[in-house]
Design goal:
mainly alpha, Arc Repressor Mutant, subunit A, three-stranded antiparallel β-sheet, 4 helices, 9% strand, WH_DNA-bd_sf, WH-like_DNA-bd_sf, DUF3253
Length: 103
Amino acid sequence: MDDATHYDSISTIESHINHFLTSRQPPKTFCPSEVARALTHPELQSLGYSSWREAMPDIRSILSTMRENNDVEILQKGVVLEGDLGAGLTNVVGPIRVRKPLA
């Protein structure tokens, strides 16, 4: 993926994430897979994905960056995850949910 395509990928995915963040006020959450499934077929193709599942690592990476910037909270079983979650949330095993920070 070249730099322009990577930037487009981040921009497109962030746009979808921000849509979910604005449409679900805290304490409401969403699953990162909802973002992936919201990508249209043309968006998936233009970003180099053949299915929404292929977008998941990039979505988790963007969410990790957003968490570092205090733009989102990452939850598991209803509890906000603290500490080092790894680059791209690699230290997190199992399903996660996302929301705007409460504070």
